[in-house]
Amino acid sequence: MSAEKDSPADLSTPGKWRWPFGPVRTLLIVSATLSAFFLLFSSLDIWFSRLFYNAEFGFPATLVRVFNWMRGLADALVWAIGIALIASVAVKLTWPLRSSLISPRTSLFLGSTLLIGPGLLVNGILKTAWGRPRPTEIVEFGGDLPFVEVWRITDYCSSNCSFVSGEASTAVWLMALALVVPLAWRNRVAVGALILAVIFSLNRVAFGGHFVSDVLISWSLTLLIVAIAHHYLFLQPFPGFAEEELEAKLTRAGLAIRRIGGRPGAGAEEGTSAERETPESEPPSVSADE
Question: What is the DSSP annotation of 37-48?
Answer without folding.
Answer: HHHHTTHHHHHH
